[in-house]
Amino acid sequence: MTAVEDPTSTTAPEAPANQVGQARLRKEDARLITGATTWTDNMVLPGMLHLSVLRSPVAHARISHLDVSAAQQRPNVVAVYTGQDFAEEQGSIPCAWPVTADMVNPGHPSVAVDQVNHVGEAVAVVVARSRSAAADALEAIDIDYESLPVVLDMEEAVQEGADLVHSHTSSNTSYHFVFDAGEAGTGADTDQAFADAEVTVSRRFVQQRLIPAFMEPRSVVVQPQGDNFTMWSATQIPHVLRVMLAMVTGIPEHKLRVIAPDVGGGFGGKLQVCPEEVLALLIARRLGKPVKWTETRSESLMAAHHGRDQVQFIDVAADREGNLKGLRVRLLAGMGAYLRLITPGVPALGAFMFPGIYKFPAYRFECDGVFTNKVPTDAYRGAGRPEATFAIERIMDELAVELGMDPLELRRKNWINAEEFPFTTVAGLEYDSGDYGAATDQALELVGYDELRAEQQRRRESNDPVQLGIGFSTFTEMCGLAPSRVLGSLSYGAGGWESASIRMLPTGKVEVVTGSTPHGQGHETAWSQIVADQLGVPFEDVEVLHGDTAISPRGMDTYGSRSLVVGGTAVVKAAEKVVAKARRIAAHLLEASEDDLEFTGGTFSVKGTPGTGVGIQEVALAVFAAHNYPEGIEPSIDAEATFDPVNFSFPHGTHICAMEVDTDTGFVKIRKYACVDDVGTIVNPMIVEGQMHGGLAQGISQALYEEAIYDAEGNLTTGTFVDYLLPSAADLPHFDTGNTVHPAPGNPLGAKGVGEAGCIASTPAVVNAALDAVRHLGVTDIRMPLTPERVWRAIHTGGDGGDRATAGTNAYGGASTESTAGVSTDASSLGGDR
Amino acid sequence: MTQINVRVDGTSYSDDVEPRTLLVHYLREGLGKVGTVVGCDTSNCGACTVHLDGEAVKSCTVLAVQADGGTVTTIEGIADGGTLHPMQKAFHEMHGLQCGFCTPGMIMASIDLVGDNPDPSDDEVREGIEGNLCRCTGYQNIVRAVQQAAAEMRGTGTASAPAEAVARA
Description:
The structure holds 2 protein chains of 2 kinds.
Chain A: H1 29-32, E1 49-55, E2 61-67, H2 69-72, E3 77-82, H3 83-86, E4 115-116, E5 122-128, H4 131-138, E6 142-147, H5 154-157, E7 173-180, H6 181-184, H7 190-196, E8 199-210, E9 219-225, E10 228-233, H8 238-249, E11 256-259, H9 275-287, E12 291-294, H10 297-303, E13 307-318, E14 324-336, H11 345-350, E15 363-371, H12 385-403, H13 407-414, E16 423-424, E17 430-431, H14 436-447, H15 449-461, E18 466-476, H16 484-489, E19 498-504, E20 510-514, H17 523-535, E21 542-545, H18 563-590, E22 597-600, E23 603-606, E24 614-615, H19 616-625, E25 639-643, E26 652-662, E27 668-678, H20 685-704, E28 735-739, H21 757-774, H22 788-797
Parallel strand pairs in A: 1-12, 10-11, 14-15, 20-21, 27-28
Antiparallel strand pairs in A: 1-5, 2-4, 2-6, 3-5, 7-15, 8-13, 9-10, 9-12, 13-14, 16-17, 18-26, 19-20, 19-25, 22-23, 23-24, 26-27
Helix pairs in contact in A: 12-21, 17-18, 18-19, 20-21
Chain B: E1 2-8, E2 11-17, H1 23-30, E3 49-52, E4 55-58, E5 71-73, H2 86-93, H3 103-116, H4 122-128, H5 140-156, H6 163-168
Parallel strand pairs in B: 1-5
Antiparallel strand pairs in B: 1-2, 3-4, 3-5
């Protein structure tokens, strides 16, 4: 492999302290920039067979006829399987998060047995000698469908008498989840707060369906060896996957090894037990041969899970001075046709974040999980929290307009002040630390706020066809998933701990084993920095092992901005144990008392005698030789630790978007984007900045570009990269990022998490900016994504520019009266309750 | 089957291929050049970008038979022994990659871009690589990387651009 130099390394190997905080270049890059990467699809095994999946072209139908005999006769085809072949053994794709006791889970076959419920659902699998032979044989499968009514619109799906996605259920509602602060004892009575309010504003927002669109398509290889199975998969969650596959297939867990080699992005999209993973395992077991399945991009877009998909009804109550009094939220959350791993839990995760950074005295949240004939939804970067942040940050702007207040002034008036941390919110969360004012002040300076406002004024006055708007998002998120007891209280099927172990090798090199499985985040680099500091060994002497259940047997994997906060802390705890064990050996070797030893820069020495002593790497060799160590202890300084956090962490930040809107064409262009985020202590500022950039791109892209669209028959019309607009470099702006640092008190690193921050925060800032540019033209909402057509329509024909007009929209054309009374019928969130 | 002769990363190969075989599949499955990857099926993502006779091409859009008699350079063939190509080095130093899946194509497209335009502005880089999608980085550090590599390639003359183009810059 080509050596990668590290010109930013400013620390000589012999004095390796204080790696944390340095912008160390990534260890991972050496293989990634030279093409020496190990993607799952690169795997070739002797006798390996290839799978190709026939997928339903219809959204809802009974399979009335299925004949695979012609396909089986095709050259190089080894087998063709249908749902009937696996009906007895495929079980259901597991759902680990039954958010309510009476949640309806219709069961999710990996391959449809007699009915299909979304376009793209697997109906047959061809096994052949080559990928192309398998794909060719698909067309020889004879299948007929008997159409059923297609259920696509959530608001129609929940009506009495609506057509059903699953005929054996009584409605399309999977569950009704409620959080009421009054009942929980964390807030006042919400209905009373609204009854007493001087001002209420109600809105209906649409969180469109998004597609995670990781760059590496999903891929899985399974090798059977007797009654043992090894699976390589492009997954975020090898550990969770192993447990779940054992439960689904009945293959004993200890006979199953799951490896996530290099994984090309995930963003929640590979946080799944995929039907194709189950099928590959079952087929490898049946044939006794290694098999590979790699999806095409079109398959990925139609059959891998989507994200978001909510209709949000949100009401806010305040007094005339702008003091917030209450918040009510009702969601229709699209499940799609089935429940996958955490499908129902995503909106529940967001339930606690709608109050944002504000001191609401009263809060009520209700959510209906709704089945439709679309591919299931599940985690996508932020998972529940972007949706919540969007709703609260959008309606804060609407309330500001209603009150005639500056949107920032309204926010300042109601946010939690720096001296109030830790602060228990109306949703019952204890926010750990931060300073919203400081981040905001810094962001205003970074974006050049006063200058932008002056330009906006000039453009208004000159009636410039290109108007300028400025939008804010002052957000927080709950990260570091998660305290296991809290997950238990939310009925989640597992804990939120993370595991790490450290092996001290005889030559002094260090192996760090982490249960947190990376797919682009840079764990190998960051973990090396942490361990270098903890053990006082050179950064280069640390190797980080991950992503293989045989090498890293315990783990909860990577999602929810948890790796550094939980997994990194486990590494610290393991390192502390190593040092404690080494201290005993060192004391023995130095013929000193443990209490007299200090440990600095990797060396144990007797206090007051600098320059003498024994290094921890020498201790490792001494322990290996084991010729001379204290009686009564084992000759090892290796250690393992499991960390279970007691609280979430709460990164926060202020994001400011300046947006140009061409009122003649509807074209929007981000003029400037600045954000200041507090992600706690920063281990590697280069990686943190990179995570911010990537998150911003995805959040901005939700606002401007992306939407998974189904036509009236349930066909995904954005089923290729031609149609699903993933932004290119030319579509995105330059980002100005900054940080404030308030360490998280809940972990020794002080880290809060950064993976999702940009994605969660940016979307409402962008939409608020666009609206700020054209609000004087009577526009009060524009439905995402802000395509030129939608923006133009919103400006020139009213409504939100989307498929349906938002009730109450036109009330803001001038001096508003209707919304002041808080009664815009269709947008009111509690329907019959009011 | 059709016979092709092609030189890839400095080695000459002679193979029989199905006429429908795409260059990227020939590289990956025929030659084991798995550094070049497939990210989509509509030629949008650019992850499969290689150089064919000195020009960047999306190898999912070229038939293997079209490369007959040609010279292909992949991500695996641009380092000079143990020395990284300036573009590889710049992607590393500017943190122009995260998961790294788009990186081979992004690097190959960027080398071609700098060959055509040895001193690209921010906007020129963004437009020049718009045929290559990245989901991780938000592109900002990729732009920085391309500009840093361009500077180094101008300075050291290692650009694959014609000499006169370098001189004009």
